[in-house]
């Protein structure tokens, strides 16, 4: 998957774009780790039961130029893409996703738009 300026996950009611004034130190302050190639990556396990180790892996990658982003939600192994918005059974996981993304929006990393 290539880096994009605006991300819309399937069945998600919102789209997310990179903030205009995002800085590298802001990403590091918000637990993004710099990869070997210079990109910034944030990984979180979205779980129904906290600390169970059973859930879906959210991975956000921002390129080193701070001009593009990738957002993937996969199974725990990270190999298969998962649509958490398809079923109401994933309500708790959806809420955790929105909570994390809203915190990144508040810090100016992303801009949230209704679809």
TrEMBL record:
It comes from the Bacteria. Pfam families: DUF1831. This is Cysteine desulfurase.
